Sequence to fold (919 residues):
Amino acid sequence: MTSKRCDTHYSSSRFFLQVLVTIFLMEAVVMSLLPVILPVHVSGWVEAITDATLLTALSAPVLWVLAFHPVHRLAFAKISKANHEAEELRAFGQILDRSLNEIYIFDADSLHFVHANRGACDNIGYTIEELRGLTPIDIKAEYTPSSFAKLVAPLLDGTQDCIEFRTVHRRKDGSEYPVEVHLETSTLDKRAVFVAVMLDVTKLKQTEEELRKLSAAVEQSPMTVVITDELGTIEYVNPKFTETTGYTSEEAIGQNPRICSSGEMPRETFTRMWNALTKGEVWQGEFHNKKKSGETYWELGTIAPIRNAIGETTHYVSLNEDITKRKQQTALTKSRSHVYKLLASSTPIEKVLETVVQGVESFSPGMLCSILLLDQEGKCLRHGAAPSLPSFYNEAIDGVEIGPSVGSCGAAAFNNVPVFAEDVMQHPNWEPYRELAKQAGLRACWSVPIRSRDEKVLGTLAMYYRSPRLPEAEDRELIDITAHLAGLAIERFQAIAQLKQAKVAAEAANQTKSEFLANMSHEIRTPMTAILGYADLLSDEQDAPPRWRKAISTIKQNGQHLLTIINDILDMSKIEAGKMTVEYIETNPIQIVEEVVSLMHARAEGKGIDLVVKYNTLIPEQIESDPTRLRQILLNLLGNAVKFTEVGKVTIHLAVNPDQQLLHLSVVDTGIGMSPEQRDVIARFEAFSQADGSTTRKFGGTGLGLRISNSLAQMLGGGLKVESELGKGSTFTMTISTGELTGVRMLNLEEIAKSTEQTPQAKSKQSDDLSGEPLKGLRILLAEDGPDNQRLISFLLKKAGAKVTVAENGQLAHDLTLAAMGEENPFDVILMDMQMPVLDGYGATRKLREVNYAGPIIALTAHAMAEDRQKCLNVGCDDFATKPIDRTKLIVIVKKYANKVETPIALQENNHTAPSSSR
Fold:
């Protein structure tokens, strides 16, 4: 360690060192004479006493004798004074001896230690006797005799009075510690000695290291650090401040932090800040600042007061983090999320773009943003969104034609490249618009093209500033990201608009298709009414030849097959249009299964196939479902099973899972089965799909049944799945929801058997009810324009005992009804065809209800869509029957309404809709 000349404040310590040396020399003399002048046991006792105490003990008797001797009374006063001073010196010596500072005296020639205070012995770990055998070089790890001689040479040659340096001491146990040394020369018994006062600076060095680290942390901090006095005047800034703001420390010190303010922050922010700081609280908040270059940025600042020992605030320290990118990402993420929500809610594009603009403006106060849209011809820019720009400015540039040098936006859109005008008053593109920009207070304009994903220009995004400037890297990133977001919004809006147009076109096409199918259905069903009706009449002829009976049966079978195809096509059309509906009412699943089996029994028996029903669990007496659709699915599955089975049997398995509220119905056949590839084709349940072409040719069918069945099963809360093995048969399993089963009676096999036994009785009773002339005495008005159907339906009704009046159109039906009412001989039932000349059935029914006609009107129509039924009910019909006419159903429905007690029309209108329950 290099020595240095003592500072002037050490000159006052020379007296202290002289006194210290005198005390130590006196003690050394006394301690060396003790073994000679005293017995051994006394000297051992005396050595146990401190050196200063021994001197006092030896001098006290002498001073006492001298004090009381008559000759020496006069001198006693002087001696007492000297003794008092000696006592003070002794006390001072004790303090020095017990001092924590280390004090060493060592010979200037031999360098051996002469004496050391107790603090030195305690810290170094050696006794005084051990030290006397050592030199400073033995306890100073870094020194050699030559280097130490060089160190103390200025003291020996008198060029320096003292030297100070730092070194390291090695303790007796080998541990080392740093010390600060003050070294001077002195004399002892006319020999030169060194006196060293040392301070253990271990803690001081640790403190210095902490301060060094703290200083380095502040200097190298990634945050700007500013320290001001209590008035806010800057006294210190770290290098990061200079890097961030562009101001040097010399430029910043002495200034107020306001030199970095953008001027865009609300005054309330600073008011709240000073209110907190004056209370001694820490304040944190965001600042929108401006660099020396004029570029703006955001900082998150934390300002804390610095207090002195008595708690007074003397300074403030501010730690500031640049949050520009973070705030930008947050703002853009929030804006993007908001934009997507607006697009999803069909918000107009103008509102969406305004949200984009406001989002970027909130990020950079003082900046004005604008979005212009390129028109469909790609020639002009139209106003999109610019809420912060003056209205006169927006109106002036709305519709501006793009060109290679038209301002910033026109050029950006035309050239498909960014155009940055640092000062619009100097930029050549802005010459025609300078007066306009001046009126609006605009000086800088940065414009970039808004592009689609295929790089097509959709418009422009512009950022305006009120002072000249060019974009920094962060500005470029912001404007690019915002333009990309605007492009997504515009492109998505265009896509949504195209989808809406496509939807409108699809709905129109679907409506056209539905109308076509409805018309085709009507046109086919109308002649089918006559075909099947007369075939049915001919089949009743008992004396018809056998070949006629076979021909009639063929007509009926193929007619029914044609109707099935028509119904399937209509159902498929409704499913694809999303117009298929189901109703949930109380349904007896056992009864439906038994009815379907009864219907298919004759066909299965004709092929020699057994139909078996197995109830695998307890079955609920009622479920909530659509019985018509459930019957339709089961008929389809059972019909396919019988069709594709030549030998064996078809088994229906019925089971219920009450916990899942599901009904499982499986149709298992021993038919031809399917290969895995064929099964996969069928399992997709696509329209017009069958296992392969040969199956279609051999067995027939449209391939619509399974698709319809699967869709209906899904609508009923379940689905359809298929399992099959080629040559061994197939299993189709339908699941549907049962609804809540709590409190529903669950039937076992015995109870199921009893319930199925009642079905034939019910059928027999119904046959009895329709035998003979069930409509005898009833007056029926038949409104029908087709001559064939007039004759057929009239014949069926008359055969049942009714008196029939025929009307060829709706107007005639209306007039005949009113005439009969006037004669007080009204018709019991009106059967109203809905499609007739002059006045159709809808108009005739509506007119009758308008004059408070309350009699039953039953619609007869070849339109079989659900909406057709509802349309009939809406105009005032009481019920609905489709063509071709089922004579049994026709007689049942006529008898049902003819026997009703007439009710006011208002009450009848409440019954127009069939009952249903939803869940």
